[in-house]
């Protein structure tokens, strides 16, 4: 291949073992330490503009020692749509330890909607357009029930928190605990 600018792996290293004691790369079954299996003329990174980093909000501190927002844990998930800026969140769902809805809100992304990504998000263009909420409104709603001590659980939670522009340290990200790779 000519003019290759990036050699990488399609999958992530989850540290799983092969048949013996040798660790293998999940996407191609090759031993760790060998050259990548995916070739590209470009390299894609998951970085944010520095100006966006200033827009991150820390989960609020407990108001008192008995702040009810500190109790137990919640599970959280975001649904994403495609906009003129890329993928953006348009729905937050939060449930308690019993599976009861705490928050389920649809909101307008910051940029113009291109595709509601219905197959994966379950959202329609009409649902998004009929909502009067913004990302900022949804984040404020979340902070009404979550403080910095509340444990949040989710799959790929890092992506959700980054998209919501939230800094929160008390998390359990199940994508790090239960990785599934299809080869």
UniProtKB/TrEMBL annotation:
InterPro entries hit by this protein: REXO1/3/4-like, RNaseH-like_sf, RNaseH_sf
Compositionally biased region (Basic and acidic residues): 1-15
GO molecular function, one term: exonuclease activity
Region (Disordered): 1-22
Primary residence: nucleus
Keywords carried by this UniProt record: Hydrolase, Nuclease, Nucleus
Signal peptide: none
The keyword Nuclease appears for this protein: yes
Transmembrane spans: none
SUPFAM superfamilies, sorted: Ribonuclease H-like (SSF53098)
GO cellular component: nucleus
Domain of life: Eukaryota
Subcellular location, record wording: Nucleus
Family stated for the protein in its record: Belongs to the REXO1/REXO3 family.
Entry protein name: Exonuclease
Protein species of origin: Dictyocaulus viviparus
